[in-house]
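Researcher: I'd like a structural prediction for the single chain below. Treat it as a standalone chain; there are no partners to consider.
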Amino acid sequence: MRTAALPADANVESRPSPFDALLKTAATLGAIPTAVVHPCDALSLQAALEAASSELIQPILVGPRTKILRAAESAGVDLDDYRIEDVPHSHAAAARAVGLARAGEVAALMKGALHTDELMAEAVDHEHGLRTERRVSHVFALDVPRYPKLLLLTDGALNITPDLLDKRDIIQNAIDLAHAIGIALPQVAILSAVETINPRIVSTIDAAALCKMRDRGQINGGMLEGPLAFDNAVSVAAAAIKGIDSPVAGHADILVVPDLMTGNMLAKQMVYLAGACSAGVALGARVPIALTSRADTVRARVMSCALARLLAHPVVTALP
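Model: Treating it as a single chain, here is the predicted structure.
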């Protein structure tokens, strides 16, 4: 459910959190079976159980049983009512979780205490993974206190230096997420260092091409503008000073960054310096993947499960 936007550049620090509305909406859909991959520390295990108590997921805990039980003891929780898939280590946990998704036993995955590379290598494996015709990408959902609405940022976690066609899929994935959370026509700002096309800055050329791809129906469901510098994307005043006349400028729902380093640093700056709350999800695979940093809070992980629940299909179909 989309939170009503306040006037751009207004003081919005006292507004309700859009995460609260998303969590409530996701819970009404009913919990989905979810493979929690290697929940072998107290934080990831607590997050999985809180997501379960919030009626978002029905967790299947995938990892070494002894380590999971040790984490449960550390967290002070009882796992008698939960299924544990006992595997020897984190690599095996990732493979088993992907196998459960391929078999139709789970509708989503949730990252636990393992490296993103371990999980995603199995998820995107050409023979045994969860690939589709769409490139897999990550979206940060950010509740920034001084921005009037939820802000989606992509891709700051998976695609290191995406090319033009990669960016097409990255944008379409983010638009799909925006639709899932109730944004009918998301405003997509394609970022660069400047708002004019410069042949020496590849991201400005890509931005122009992506806007034309939207015009020709190669990207659907959103309003695109770019290249835009960051200030033009989020500030009406900055856009006006620079003479940028666009419905996207100053009102972005989605920020598309030129590469992973830019996106990762921008998202973490918003969290650690601007007080943003975050969540993260990977899209483009057969099932959504709640994908957060190992340093993220329980709330960030639960909200990531809410995003996965809003994206997940109610019927899980086994793959050949």
